[in-house]
Write a structure and sequence with these properties.
The structure holds three protein chains of three kinds. Chain A is an alpha/beta fold. Chain A contains ten helices and five strands, in the order H-E-E-E-H-E-H-E-H-H-H-H-H-H-H. The chains are: A alpha/beta, B mainly alpha, C alpha/beta. Chains A and C meet through helix 4 of A and helix 3 of C. The complex binds iron/sulfur cluster (SF4) (2 copies).
């Protein structure tokens, strides 16, 4: 790994390399350069994750010509695909060094949500939404209970914007979450569920299920589960599998043909 | 379908509305959003749809969201209390606090 | 801090932040944790979700009240009565830790005597807390060990601030909750380095590590190290400085990174005092309200532009790493002070912050002696760390209190200095909101935070708003015996009827026009920001 990166930096394939450096036993994201090749000795693959591709987006905004290399897991690749599609990064200027995806005790091909099985206590079981739940499990609850459980989770929110700030595919210059007319300002918890719903809707066609938002959320709100549902609907309704390829056009989402029909109003009982 | 003034505007709309319907259902707010195609010539249909939908929303009862909006514990527990209890794997209900006073 | 030191012998959070997660019960009193210490609120909720009991006692309804097993709104300033009432019930139900009390504490009999009078009925009369709720919170606290008690400014900023803290200590010791993992009495400090600033002797009466200046041996040690005699009389607290300025005894003031024009009680009084000064220097990164009236203003290196250490609320000393070079010609604080001192004929020269830190360690035997930059690494070390092999101390008073035995203080409830009356019928309390920090010098210039709340406001209960026919956004005129201010109304159930809440961050709506400089704790000299009496009117334009 060190050798490849060294060669890339030396022969000009890339100008900088984004990886992790071990500092006092903590892997921290670090930008390795040709000027300081000796630092490559501390280059590590980290079990802790940071959105390296987001750092690359920021770099590119500041300096469009810079060629960037980075360590890439599966989720990094998916994020890059989305960023290429949305013209935030130029595939010509990105080199990835693929590393084994997070090894997991539960699944062979890793799914990072299983890396650290969340400890879910009794109170959360009773009132909230289990972070490790599968989408289908939620349908065991009735409408009213589901609303109560999600609202319990949302009420914990401290509006820290951690979920947005860490998200590799959140790149808008002006964020709707900070728009006074959409979300009432000045209160904790923020206006719910609107705050979380706006973010969820905006993740349609973008979220690549890396789980960083949930890891970042100080209040352990099951954000990943919510965005999984978003992706699930996007796949069903728009036939769009987010992040799987860099060529699929996002304009699928607009679409010029459709097979859906408006649903009838059902006066009794619950729909679907 | 397809005879939208804005070309494929209604294709886009139905996808978005379907998306929103699904998402709101997932959260537990089912049935509070509706889409129908009504042309400017279909006054009768318009009246019918609005009447039906109004009736449906009335049947659903008041918007449950305001109950969560103030920092009163009572509000939270009253809503959480309803419809709960058949939680898979939930712990047995706690014994009520014994009265220590007087 | 004075209260904690008197009870335990050490004025700091007894336990670590991470331990809160493993508490059996958490009592939060006088702290709006999600707004002011969100990452501690995270631990509280985790504990709760794991099954801990949560009790919130606050005059306001805060975000955490929603999650509490029991939350009570005791009347502003009635903390001692509430805590005494809890202890009364603990003794009555025989829930106290008898062996612990006998072996590790002193002064229990006097407390027991005082508590007899605090029957639930009496406490209900003072605090407004229903006797049944009092019973419930007492039972939860006493029967779910280890119980952790968290408090913040809502306890300390009172004329009875020290008594309030001592009462918290009494309660914790009564149930044997001090010196155990996951328990303790935990003051949440406001800034990343308030604990550090106090540890460094940034108080008028102590040198580093709370070594009193009145102790000749301590003075001798520092005189040796510094080559100068150390004054034996304590200096002035900020509360003493204002009268000294007015009397002309204090002629020059050098303010480093503070904004007393907003953060000190009684704005009119302070303004008058500042005008008496011959010379006012303000060192601040931003042109604060105080800087605007100074004779000399200059900037300094910001947090990202300097090296050094900070000690946070859980006594953890951590290194700051310089990320960028200072812009223009600003200097880090230590260099400014060194140069100033050298110019004033005491040659202070250090090579770098590490040299200063090593001097601190060498002069602070118990708490910092074992720390070095190298040992701290990224995670830091928690004091006391007396020798180079000591791993640091996650929780204090494990087998023995710092002062030997834990001391109970028998305390009677006292009314706040000012209670509502016919003329000024409303309670006024002040505090913070989540988007802004202190006087807002830093946060109000950030567009992301400014958008959350651009102006000051006054929280008022819908019942009161109804009586005054006030709607959201109407301008309220608030007046106290000291002054008068205007603020838009925010109608909310966060405050109980009869109470007005004002956030302190906003210079154009300075809350300290209303608060009282004469009312402060006699020992800690902390002003009573949390309780005053006001009257309110709706502003009508004629
Ligand atoms: S999982 Fe979260 S952080 Fe990752 S892409 Fe989706 S929304 Fe963004
Ligand atoms: S990270 Fe969590 S607490 Fe922070 S804004 Fe997002 S949902 Fe809210």
């Amino acid at each position: 790994m060190q050798d490849t990166v060294k060669a890339w930096l030396e022969n000009g394939t890339i100008d900088v390399f984004l990886g992790y450096k071990k500092v006092d036993n903590h892997p921290l994201p670090h930008c390795f350069t040709k000027a300081r090749l000796e630092e490559l000795e501390d280059l590590v693959v980290s079990p802790d994750r940071y959105p390296l591709e987001k750092i690359a987006t920021h770099m590119t905004t500041a300096k469009p010509e810079v060629k960037i290399g980075m360590l890439a897991r599966d989720c990094t690749q998916r994020a890059l695909n989305v960023l290429y599609i949305w013209n935030q990064l130029d595939p010509e200027k990105i080199q990835t060094l693929n590393v084994n995806c997070c090894p997991s005790p539960l699944k062979e091909k890793a799914d990072c949500s299983y890396l650290r099985p969340a400890t879910v206590g009794d109170y959360k079981k009773e009132k909230g939404v289990n972070n490790a739940a599968l989408l289908e499990q939620l349908s065991e609850y009735g409408q009213e209970e589901r609303l109560g459980r999600w609202m319990y989770e949302f009420q914990k929110c401290i509006k820290c914007y951690g979920c947005r700030n860490i998200c590799p595919v959140c790149f808008c210059k002006e964020c709707s979450l900070e728009h006074e007319d959409l979300i009432k300002t000045g209160a904790l918890p923020p206006e719910i569920p609107v705050f979380h719903l706006i973010r969820a809707v905006h993740m349609a066609g973008r979220c690549i299920d890396c789980g960083l938002c949930e890891e970042a959320c100080p209040m352990d709100i099951p954000l990943r589960l919510l965005y999984r549902k978003v992706n699930d609907i996007v796949a069903q309704v728009f036939d769009y599998k987010t992040g799987t390829s860099a060529s699929q056009s996002p304009f699928n989402i607009l679409g010029d043909s459709v097979t859906l029909e408006p649903k009838p109003i059902q006066l009794t009982g619950t729909d679907s | 379908m397809g005879d939208c003034h804005y070309l494929y505007g209604n294709y886009m709309t139905i996808k978005r509305i379907t998306f929103l319907q699904e998402l709101l259902t997932f959260l537990g707010l089912e049935g509070r959003i509706h889409l129908a195609w009504i042309s400017s010539a279909e006054a009768q249909k318009f009246v019918q749809v609005v009447t039906d939908f109004t009736e449906k929303v009335r049947a659903l009862g008041p918007n449950p969201l305001p109950t969560f909006s103030h920092n009163k514990k009572a509000a939270l527990s009253s809503v959480l209390g309803r419809g709960m209890g058949k939680t898979p794997g939930s712990s047995p209900p706690e014994p009520a606090l014994q009265e220590v006073y007087p | 801090m004075a209260g904690l030191a008197a009870a335990f012998g050490s004025g700091a959070m007894t336990n670590s932040i991470a331990e809160i997660e493993d508490a059996g019960c958490i009592l939060i009193i006088g702290s709006n944790t999600t707004s002011c210490h969100p990452l501690i609120a995270r631990r509280v909720l985790r504990a709760k979700e794991k099954g801990a009991k949560l009790i919130v006692a606050d005059p306001r309804n805060i975000q955490l009240s929603r999650f509490a097993d029991v939350s009570v709104n005791h009347r502003l300033g009635s903390d001692v009565a509430l805590l005494n009432g809890m202890m009364h019930l603990i003794l009555q139900n025989d829930w106290h830790a008898k062996q612990y009390i006998a072996e590790r504490t002193e002064g229990f009999e006097a407390l027991e005597e005082t508590l007899k009078a605090y029957t639930p009925e009496k406490v209900q009369a003072i605090t407004g807390v229903d006797v049944h709720d009092l019973g419930k919170i007492t039972q939860l606290y006493a029967t779910h060990p280890p119980a952790s008690l968290l408090y913040a400014m809502g306890i300390t900023q009172h004329t009875t601030g020290v008594d309030n803290v001592k009462s918290c200590c009494n309660l914790a010791m009564l149930c044997g909750n001090v010196g155990v993992y996951g328990g303790g009495v935990n003051p949440l400090r406001g800034q990343n380095n308030v604990q550090g600033a106090c540890d460094m002797g940034g108080l008028p009466n102590v040198l580093t590590g709370y070594q009193p200046v009145t102790d000749a041996g301590v003075r001798e040690k520092f005189a040796q190290a510094w080559g100068r005699d150390i004054p034996e009389k304590p200096g002035l607290t900020i509360t003493d400085m204002v009268p000294a300025m007015l009397e002309g005894k204090l002629k020059g003031l050098y303010v480093i990174g503070e904004n007393p024009k907003l953060s000190d009680p009684d704005w009119n009084h302070l303004n008058h005092a500042l005008k008496q000064l011959d010379f006012l220097v303000v060192q601040d990164l931003f042109l604060s309200e105080t800087a605007q009236v100074a004779d000399v203003v200059f900037s300094a290196a910001s947090v990202a532009e300097k090296e050094g250490t900070v000690t946070n609320t859980e006594r953890r000393c951590m290194r700051l790493h310089k990320a960028v070079d200072p812009i223009h010609n600003t200097l880090p604080d230590w260099e400014i002070i060194s140069r100033l001192s050298t110019a004033m004929a005491y040659d202070m020269s250090y090579e770098n912050p590490e040299a200063i830190f090593n001097e601190i360690a060498s002069l602070t035997p118990n708490s910092y002696a074992g720390m070095t930059y190298e040992r701290m690494g990224l995670d830091g070390l928690q004091w006391p760390c007396p020798d180079p092999h000591h791993p640091g101390t996650p929780y204090l008073h494990k087998d023995k209190f710092a002062r030997g035995k834990g001391r109970f203080h028998a305390l009677e409830y006292q009314d706040p200095a000012e209670m509502p009356d016919e003329e000024y019928p409303y309670f006024l309390t002040t505090g913070r909101m989540f988007a802004h920090f202190h006087t807002g010098t830093m946060t109000r210039v950030s567009p992301h935070l400014d958008v959350e709340q651009k102006t000051g406001y006054a929280e008022i209960n819908p019942t009161d708003a109804g009586k005054l026919t006030v709607n959201e956004g109407d301008i309220l005129v608030l007046s106290s015996r000291r002054g008068r201010m205007e603020a838009p109304a925010h109608v909310t159930e966060s405050v109980e009827p009869g109470t007005i809440f004002l956030p302190i961050h906003f210079g154009e709506n300075p809350t300290n026009v209303l608060t009282d400089a004469e009312a402060f704790d006699p020992l800690a000299k902390i002003p009573e920001f949390k309780v005053s009496a006001v009257k309110i009117e709706k502003l009508t334009i004629e």
